[in-house]
Amino acid sequence: MSELRSIFRIIFRELKETTNFDSALKKVNLKQLSESLGLSQTTVSRALNGYPEVKEATRQKVQDAARRMNYAPNPGARGLATGRSMAIGHVIPVSKQHEMVNPIFGDFVAGASQTYSGRGYDMVLTHVDDGDEESVYRMLASKGRVDGIIVHGPRNDDARIPLLNSLRIPFVVHGRSSQSDQDYSWVDVNNQRSFRRATEFLLDLGHRRIALINGLEDMDFARRRRAGFLSAFEGRAVQPDPSLMCSAEMTEYYGHQETVKMLQTDNPPTAILASSLISGLGVRRAIEEIGMTVGQDVSVIVHDDMLSYLTEPKEVPLFTATRSSVRVAGQISADLLMKLVDNPTCEPEHILLEAELVVGRSTGPAPR
Amino acid sequence: MSELRSIFRIIFRELKETTNFDSALKKVNLKQLSESLGLSQTTVSRALNGYPEVKEATRQKVQDAARRMNYAPNPGARGLATGRSMAIGHVIPVSKQHEMVNPIFGDFVAGASQTYSGRGYDMVLTHVDDGDEESVYRMLASKGRVDGIIVHGPRNDDARIPLLNSLRIPFVVHGRSSQSDQDYSWVDVNNQRSFRRATEFLLDLGHRRIALINGLEDMDFARRRRAGFLSAFEGRAVQPDPSLMCSAEMTEYYGHQETVKMLQTDNPPTAILASSLISGLGVRRAIEEIGMTVGQDVSVIVHDDMLSYLTEPKEVPLFTATRSSVRVAGQISADLLMKLVDNPTCEPEHILLEAELVVGRSTGPAPR
DNA sequence: CAGTTTATCCAAAGCGCTTTGATGATGTTA
DNA sequence: TAACATCATCAAAGCGCTTTGGATAAACTG
Q1: Beta-sheet pairing, B320-323 with B356-358
Q2: Which of A136, A158, B203, B274 is deepest in the core (most CB within 10 A)?
Q3: Contact (CB, 8 A) for B200 and B192
Q4: Distance between first and last Cα of chain A
Q5: pTM
Q6: pLDDT tens digit string along B224-234?
Q7: Distance from CA of B359 to the nearest CA of A (A)
Q8: Strands ordered across the beta sheet of A271-274
Q9: Which of B32, B309, B310, B331 to mutate to test the interface with A (most CBs of A within 10 A)?
Q10: Which of A149, A89, A109 is nearest to B122 (CA)?
């Protein structure tokens, strides 16, 4: 009896699979599709790709059949024929020393992805160790895998830029590489200005001992932030204290560690500028651990990339912050790259996004 | 004089570019390479792909020339000829309602990427809105774009699983989909057991009012965690309080919000279990804000995915945590998928990773 | 009605690679 | 020396698509 039932089950399952087989699995190619329609491959291809030289009625018939038979062109073959792969490469460097994955990355990519999917592009992701970058870029650029590249995490005088320029493949850098003598397209936040403004804001509140807990300064953005920080002091003719400037990985833990160090000195800072919301969380923890109050005893400003899982309430955020959505940056970078891909002769373009200075509850007048 | 110098500069630059042109830009295909060697395409292809029927001396010559002339096979063409794309698709769902990018994602992908690059595979990333999943998967599966797929963020009874099964394409799910009647390969953390253990640990410490600040429970992992949580109570014949269980997005902000709510009631929890380190940070903030001490007045356990930018010190971590590296999970998932791709007939495999319970400073005996 | 467009459709070439089935060249055996 | 493996190489077919350069029929012109 139970045997019978299990036999039924098997039959049922097979039935189901057969059904699925017809409706979903069966993969047709252009040739089969066109034969089934009694048309040539040419006509079918044109009908599907919106060319004008095919009768509207025919186009309808073709499109219906394509949907019904589950036709989807093979991207490889199409790429071969058109010379375009309809894919964009994102290459993110993974440094062996501190093997941290940039938290920025997820949101940036989500933004870019949105642009791509609207245009029918795919995203090809490659992580690459510091050393073997060249080969990876070559591989990608080898006309065929991708039509364009987005460069993540540029460092000072980054070797990838001349390389990509010489490979003649469209690319957009997210961020900038300081002293590169070559021109290239980039999308960046105005790190210098936003940190200058943030610092000025603190100076205006009467703070003089302001600390900078920066990201690692072999990254370009970190340098610029420091430059902005320093230029604010210079503008006010105030001397910054070098012992209040450090650069560490932007983790909660290091933010905490550096803050503790600084607050335990004889002459602690009254304000701290942190290069990320994450390290800012560590800064706050350290302050509170010591029994001080954020925004009262110590003011804190962070840079907020608006990572989606670190949302701040709209009305009165916890942190006063220089704010700029990295997700939007991803979208914009992708848009720019698409433009370059469509029109490879056009000149490199530079997009400088301004960060807002959003005042939250973590800043107040300097204690006296 | 300065004019002369600038002319020299221009000449020099052009020279440099010309050199680059030869060494980097010039893209050769198999035909050109083989002609320059006086060999047939067949032989060259075989030499490069390690086939035995070519003389070792010839192979050397070919390999040298390939390197020198900067030859790299066109992946599209190769894919056409071999029927394999040497690419793996990662599809991550983006829900329109709460458009949060899963922070897990960056690290998971970094782990997987490591596996791929060792095997010569690329990673094709697609973000897809909840609705149009089917078409995206079909597109990808359309033999050609990718050889296999990794499914992220499975929900309860996820429709993607029967779909992919019927498409007959190898895939691995990161996580599980509860009541799916189909078999499929997955890699998951033993969420149930780890949350059961964590809860038992708290019960052992004398806690009775234990809160669970879970992730959104349309995600499978969140359900399992709750099940583990409840089973620990059941095992000890203790009644859990439903008002102490909530499920929210796993952000710092929501962790804080929920904790504040709970601590302000008449009968607050003495311990809190948080589904992520990020929401755990919010939990801690709330506790300290109220003037209580973590690990003393309120114990906290979090689940720690070991995200690289949320590292905890090795010796005595801040948080007692159920710990399991999502990066390693990425690597393992990719390994499994590679195996399935190489051998499509093999049965679905299930890998259940155990999380360690690491004791840190955030837990202590229940206050009395 | 011949001549010329115009509207539809098609055959075949070609994108760059792998792979099958042959072809010489070389060495081995009877 | 004929017969036969063995080794190293090659020509050509084919993967699935786009696109060029017709071809055919219908419509329009004068």
Answers
A1: antiparallel
A2: B274
A3: no
A4: 89
A5: 0.89
A6: 999 999 999 99
A7: 17
A8: A245-247, A210-214, A271-274, A299-304, A320-323, A356-358
A9: B309
A10: A89
pLDDT at B272: 98
The one-letter amino acid code at B207 reads H
B157-189: pLDDT as tens digits: 888 898 888 888 999 999 998 777 889 999 999
Contacts of B77 in chain A (CB under 8 A): 76, 80, 144
Range with lowest mean pLDDT among A60-69, B23-32, B319-328: B23-32
Q: Is the CB of B35 under 7 A from strand D?
A: no
Radius of gyration from C-alpha coordinates of chain A = 28
Percentage of residues of chain A with pLDDT beyond 70: 91
Chain A touched by B126 (CB under 8 Å): yes
Joined tokens for residue A65: 């059949």
